[in-house]
């Protein structure tokens, strides 16, 4: 059972568009609104793979670039998370991801000042002579099984989070997190090891 209709619309949805054809979802998947794919530009097939009995609530956003890929494991719950994937974001099974969590596999804008200026012009829809956007660095993000990510946490490019880890509310995760630990702070650091 699922609330996704055969035409890929969501039962009782206020959003008029269907779930994109290159989004795959398992049995018992709950998607509160197809609006979570409003920033979806994925061209891969599949670009998003959602496992069995996953719940995605309407505050979520799958902002997937043309070459991006996202995988969410079975029984995971995403409640208002922003997932930005220009390359790859992988979320394990039994994960709990809270409100306003941002997971990004790239910087999305250059660090270099001149390139950042070029990027601002390239992104302006009415700018004359718009240049190409500079190349943006991406590194995959991998989140293990049974991970809990608290309210307003940020997971940045290249991070791997080990199984059973807890990411405290508001943490900014810039480095990989060992399994069975709690991390907190900005930048996030291990504050406790779990038995």
Reconstruct the topology from this structure:
Elements: E1 23-25, E2 30-31, E3 48-50, E4 55-56, E5 61-64, E6 69-72, E7 77-78, E8 82-85, E9 88-91, E10 96-97, E11 102-104, H1 113-123, E12 141-143, E13 148-149, E14 154-155, E15 160-161, E16 166-167, E17 172-173, E18 181-184, E19 189-193
How would you describe this protein?
- The protein has two domains: 23-105 and 140-193, Hexapeptide repeat proteins (UDP N-Acetylglucosamine Acyltransferase, domain 1); 108-135, no CATH class.
- The chain has one helix at residues 113-123; strands at 23-25, 30-31, 48-50, 55-56, 61-64, 69-72, 77-78, 82-85, 88-91, 96-97, 102-104, 141-143, 148-149, 154-155, 160-161, 166-167, 172-173, 181-184, 189-193.
- It starts with 22 loop residues before the first strand and ends with a strand.
- It is mostly beta strands.
- It is 6% helix and 28% strand.
- The strands form three sheets. An eight-stranded mixed beta sheet has the order 2-4-7-10-13-16-18-19, with no helix packed on it. A six-stranded parallel beta sheet has the order 1-3-6-9-12-15, with no helix packed on it.
- Strand 18 (181-184) and strand 19 form a beta hairpin.
């Amino acid at each position: 059972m699922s609330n996704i209709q055969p035409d890929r619309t969501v039962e009782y949805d206020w959003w008029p568009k269907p779930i994109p054809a290159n989004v795959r979802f398992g049995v018992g998947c709950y998607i509160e609104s197809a609006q979570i794919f409003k920033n979806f530009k994925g061209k891969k097939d599949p670009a998003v793979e959602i496992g069995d009995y996953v719940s995605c609530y309407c505050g979520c956003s799958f902002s997937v670039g043309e070459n991006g890929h996202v995988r969410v494991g079975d029984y995971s719950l995403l409640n208002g998370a922003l997932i930005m994937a220009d390359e790859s974001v992988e979320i394990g099974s039994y994960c709990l991801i809270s409100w306003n969590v941002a997971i990004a596999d790239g910087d999305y804008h250059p660090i270099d000042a001149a390139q950042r200026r070029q990027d601002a012009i390239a992104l302006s829809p009415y700018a004359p002579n718009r240049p190409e956007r500079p190349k943006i660095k991406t590194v995959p993000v991998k989140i293990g099984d049974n991970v809990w990510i608290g309210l307003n946490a940020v997971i940045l490019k290249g991070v791997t989070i080990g199984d059973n880890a807890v990411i405290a509310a508001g943490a900014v995760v810039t480095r990989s997190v060992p399994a069975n630990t709690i991390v907190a702070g900005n930048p996030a650091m291990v504050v406790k090891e779990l038995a």
